[in-house]
Amino acid sequence: MKNLIKTTAVLTTLVILLSAFSVTAFAESGYLVHGTFNFDYANEMADYINDYREQNGLEKLENDFSLVEPAMIRAAECSVNFSHIRPNTKSWSTVADWEEAVAENIAKGFSNPREATDGYYNSEGHRINMLGDYTRMGVGVFTDDNGLNYWIHIFTRGDVQRSYKEKGKRSVIVSIGDNPDAETQVVYSDGLPSPTDKALEYEKDLSPDIASVSLSKTVFVYNGRSQAPKITVRDKNGNKISDKYYSVNMPSKHTFYGVYTIKVSHKLKNQSFNKKFKIIPKAVAINKMISKSKKSVTVKWKSVSPSATGVKLCVAKDEDFTEGKKTYTISRTKRYKSVKGLKKGTTYYFKLRTYKKSGDEVYYSDWSSVKKIKR
């Protein structure tokens, strides 16, 4: 995780000295922990945290289910190793490694959310985290088979990922690894759908349908660097849709000439949109038009980009380039073209563009401004 801000605080009570861990070794490589995830307690504690923040003139934190699940896992892990280092020897922050800045509080032994929240608040390190510059939180409460409660806070910034709120108590069997290659796995043993599945359905119903996808630009001029448009996704009412509801599949390389396809897919619904943009050669302007006779004219232009293949010069007897139209293909290294066979009393119109041939494809720049001359 890049630029991770890690803040930790540990809180214990005398109850710890009177209780044993509820842990069973398994497969000589980890532990099975039996107990309960108490979502009611977690939700109540989240409310108490926000009460304290309001008392201190701070904004409330959003209770984000995408952080509640990791907090529940950390609560179970703390029943094995009461530390900010996970049983698999990784940092506590890896339980939510998609977050850029998180803080964690851990505690055990309190009997209810009110007592636990007050205990946290009366501890300076925990209070700093509770009142920190965050926007979201997840609270985890795990009760082991001996009735000992583990209370976890995870704080972070950014927009809410999942607004779903689980309720009640859920019996769980938690498989906790003890090496860096092992991740904690949770099985809900009460026979009911997992909170993850219910949260997904909730967010699916809540999420807006994508009505349109637009690109800030569809044409870029080659500059040797990677270029891509900004993407705007809207619903049927014209409102922007948060990128938490959609993913963007951008071509891995979008530097050279070509047509590129961006795929925008709804994360929760069967919707996808393809949008195209292209990178074209740099245009070149007509610099001079030299006439030494009524029957010919020499058209000159500035040097062409070394990455281009050549120039297309178009001449016609009307501004729409339909009457008597002729097109000349000129090498990139050449900077002029003499056009002969012109008729006296006729006005001729000229424009040019560069092109790049790549395999079987040809990519063109925009046309230059039109120049005209009368014979």
Structure characteristics:
single chain, 375 residues, alpha+beta, nine-stranded mixed beta sheet, five-stranded antiparallel beta sheet, 5 helices, 16% helix, 38% strand, disordered N terminus
* Helix proportion: 10-25%
Count the DSSP helices.
5
Mean pLDDT: 90
| Biggest sheet character | 9 strands, mixed
User: Which radius of gyration do the C-alpha atoms yield?
Assistant: 33 Å
What oligomeric state is this? single chain
Helices and strands: which structural class?
A: alpha+beta
Shape call: rod-shaped
Report strand %. Answer: 35-45%
Q: How far is the first residue's CA from the last residue's CA? A: 70 Å
The count of DSSP E runs of length 2 or more, i.e. the number of strands, is: 23
Low-pLDDT segments, ≥5 res: 1-6, 12-27
Please write the string of helix (H) and strand (E) elements: EEEHEHEHHEEEEHEEEEEEEEEEEEEE
